[in-house]
Amino acid sequence: MLIKKAADIPSSEITPKSVYLRRREFLQAGSAAVAGAGLVAAGWNLWGGDAHAQGGGLPKLPNVKKSPLSTTEEPSAYQYVTSYNNFYEFAPGAGDGPKKNSGKFKATPWTIEVDGLCNKPGKYQLEDFIKPFTLEERIYRFRCVEAWSFVIPWVGIPLSEFIKRAEPQGSAKFIEMTTLVDRSRFPMQSTDLLEWPYKEGLRLDEANHPLTILAVGLYGEVLPAQNGAPIRLVVPWKYGFKGVKSIVKIRFVDKQPINTWQAMARNEYGFYANVNPMVDHPRWSQARERRLPSFIPNHPTQMFNGYADQVQGLYAGMDLKRNF
Amino acid sequence: MPKPITILKAALFVAALVPFGLLVWGYHTDDLTANPGDYITDQTGDWTLGTLFASLCVTPLRKLTGWNDLIKLRRMLGLFAFFYVTLHLLTWIVFVNYFDVPSMVADVFKRPFITIGMATFVILFLLAITSNRWSIRKLGRKWGSLHRLVYLAAIGGVIHFWWLVKADITLPRRWAVAFGVLLTARAWWWYQKRRVPVRPRGTALGKA
What we know:
By secondary structure, chain A is α+β, with helices and mostly antiparallel strands. Chain A is built from 10 helices and 14 strands.
């Protein structure tokens, strides 16, 4: 019974940790006036639902358009989205390691190389790469393969619009993206923790899906280093590791790329990595998730992370158990 | 003035509670990351290995230093290992599975790292409930054989850790080396002891 109950609480009814924190603030201050102000602030934060009031003081991104593809779910608190990350170039394992170890990271200047089977290959400075497109806010559910999740207001561009401009050739069937290799900026690249550079790939039709974006920001600001600055892939119906960070190379290819985690452990991580509550990871169940911050699994995991209506057509007739 | 071993024991008792205290404090100050369930699971697992390691250090240290009173620390350290492994199991029941019994039962049979983790818990449980004077008397010679299962628990704990990490095997490897040294030392002493009867003359090595 308890289990059912936990799973049935809508995310909107779970008190955000920021509210809980404010409770602490006024408890410490110990004055009725401060307590009152704290309550008002907490109430506003909870019911106002204004994610844009959050942020980390990083440069704001201008002219960001809203998108009908955004979820109406309440975004997670900025402090958690930016202090609980998996980014093996900075630190092994999920936690605040990536944030703590990203001090030496610099996102400028940044060059992105486009090559492979396309008519418009080239090398671009990040600003020039982004310039032709309109930035959009996309509030997406984010589901890590390790059974935790957030709701994140990304800012980015549809990958499909970039692909259109690059003019892929008929023989291009997949797209492959690569993370920067630079030991001075990514301390763990001096170890053999993973095979560097980190690589990810998508089928071209997945890459062209309107939900797929290249993100350059979150909460209206540029991406912090630990979230994949300055530009990363976001594919909301797939596990988080598909979202390759700090991209320096985009390549159109004819063969299915071997992504890093598949190369590391092919029995545990596949090419598709679609969120699927019915297909367990060999070591844990994917049926539920912790919508962070939370001690316990408080959310049932949805097929394709809740984007089934939009994306299941991409996988018609495919055995998703085999193509995990 | 209390005996040195009494002071050392009290100090170790407090020290072994520090990791638990830090978790309680971290909960209080909301400093257990956005995923506190995972954090506490990791920490209690680490300290199960830590206290188990400390308990297995007692005998080698006693042999090396000749300070026989050290043996008085062993049960306490072993019980701390049981304390942390019990917390670790509880985090799995509550934070990972949230009392979903069918899913937990299935996992014990389905996932090797959980199977071996559970077996390790059962061993530590058996050792903990037979760690009192009454059991020692009652079991007689069998008590020693039973409590040698602690070596299996150490090996099981390290394998459990090794199998659950995703990419970074630094920590499990470190524990494997640490326990490996202790178990090798014991194997060596055992071998020496067995050799004694075939020696032409009894030597000091023959002493228990």
